[in-house]
Amino acid sequence: MAPNRPNGPLGPPFSPFLSKPTSLEKKPIRLRYTVLNVLLAVEPVIMDLVIAVWVGIGPFARVLGLSLHMIAALGKLFSEDVETISAGPMEAVTATRATRLQMIIDAAVPRIISTYVSLTMYR
Question: What are the backbone angles phi and psi of residue 23, rounded to the nearest 5°?
């Protein structure tokens, strides 16, 4: 696998919406995890074959297949990291009448930024 894929930064935007502490709605989280699990369960080669039917045989199908697989893997890793955040700082920020976005920026991001950077650079 090539280390310089452009899909690494696409996982973090999806991960706050997949984790329970920062999600805006609680019910669709299970559906989102199911979609990520299905994308991870399908081997990238099989995914490439299915995508090749849609876009044609060539390197573009392989790039799309690997991109989907890596976005799912990083999204799941990032959302699991967000779930390990302790509730104390988030409750303290919301006690100051902060909005949901301010809570994510001030309480969640400082706790997970190092893991985000390391996983993105590793993948």
Answer: -75, 145
CA distance 43 to 91: 40
* pLDDT, tens only, 66-112: 888 888 888 888 888 888 888 888 888 888 988 888 888 888 888 88
* Residue 100 · residue 36 · CB < 8 Å: no
Q: What one-character DSSP code corresponds to residue 2?
A: -
**Region for 44 from its dihedrals, namely left if φ exceeds 0, alpha if ψ lies in -120 to 50, beta otherwise:** alpha
**How many helices and strands (H and E) does the chain possess?**
7, 0
Q: Among candidates 62, 82, 67, which has minimal Cα distance to 9?
A: 67
